[in-house]
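Shipment paperwork, digital attachment
Item: protein structure file
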Amino acid sequence: MLRISVLAVAATLALAPACKSRTPRGADAAAPGERGPGGAISAVALPSPHPLEASPQIGAYVRDPAAALDVARATLPGVPSLAEVAGLVLASQAPAEVAEGIAPMIAERRPWAAAIVAGEEILHLPLLPDQTDAAVKLLARYPAEGKFGAVQLPGAAVQLPAGGVDGPPPRPRLAWVDRQHNALAIAETLEGLVTARELPRGYGSQPVWLSAAGAKLSEYVDFPYARVSASGTGLDDLTITIEADPQRGLPRSPELAAGALTNLHAGDALALAASTRWARHEVEVKGIIRQIRAQVDAAGFAAKMMLQPLADQAITVLKSWNGRVFVGIGPSRHLALALGADEPMRAGQALARFLKTAIDNLELARMFVSDVPKLSLRRHSKSPEIHVLTMQGARKQVPQSLGGLLDERGSLKVAFSFTPKSGAVFMTIGADAETAIAAWAESIEAAPPASESAGDLIAVTVALSPGQLQELLGRADPNDASALMIAGLDLGAGRPPTQLVIREEADRYVVTSKGPASTVAPLRQGRGQ
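Attachment content:
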């Protein structure tokens, strides 16, 4: 119930963690009672709330839901309205008539909070100032519980087991309109209802916060971690921590290692990009080098005289690669690629020499074979150093899916550059490759050096509008990175970029998200709906 509701809210609003416990108030609080003789209102003592836990099994808090949702809506397709989110949460806690009736009464600019405290699922949703009486009237049809206005709720519209997919039926729920805090509380006991008013203060150290224990999540899915938590303002500034299970250790991919080229994600032209370091690159490079040498050794004497210099230069280029890799699309109809190098200047110059030698050999081959492609290499600029490789009449050599990269004459252009700060030989492929790479090189020089991202495991940039992202996901399998890149070649950046970076630490993964902030004006202290 609540655990699913909390996670649904978190995913929609990009909630996050870093929990701060707070000692709740004791039993000295009071709720309004009945009007007695002479019109006086008698106070009713409330039960003592549960002590809050520093790291609850599941907990969530959003200080300004409207602002958090604004960021999510500008980033992702299909984001529901806050009223729809409220309806979803309430439907897992209350009957349909309550969920449908109260959802429009929920305030969008005041804190929402939920947590499992003392084993009890507790929900706090603020009400619009003019909707308090309406909420009380709607709940008045249900049996009273206690002496301060709580009611017993019948079964929820969405019934979920209390202890996972095979768990027992959910426990009955209680609801209470807390007039003092102008909020709706839902819990399992009267003490839980009073605890609801403590959640915003106890867990509100960050604008958005989420924390979930792996053991609790494992009741529903296989979750091989001890805890996931996040904190920040939303997708525009979020830090997610995924802690290793002490018994299972930290799951790792044998294919990936730290060394993403995060610096190459700079600029506003990239629509979609990803980078990491291939952990097995040394083994694969050694295998390729063995194959090259074997082919040269098997060639005849005359052929070997021609192939040996080319093979030596190719081997030099291969050995310069340190396994770091980058792939992206942007600007529109341009592909961006990069291979990391500890000495990028030497690697780039080695690549230029190899290409020149290869083109010279192809020109010689054209004297005997007519259908050899015509290639040319020229230096476009010296600072930054940019070289442009052009293949004329490339329509027959390029797959149809990549036809958008060709210019109007059917030529394929590959522009590549290399600077000490870049940490890579980087290139763009497309009709205006030299212009695209010049702008990219300028952005890279303004970014931190490649050495600062040596500890990043994965970096991802998304600058597609929600509509573009929806279109892309309709074209290709979202689990196939290559298919996504090809399908999105004609898409340019549709909004300021959001960048995700994953770092591996001793016993956890740390994910940061940075992107455009909400356009909703921030709340002033003490103000809101």
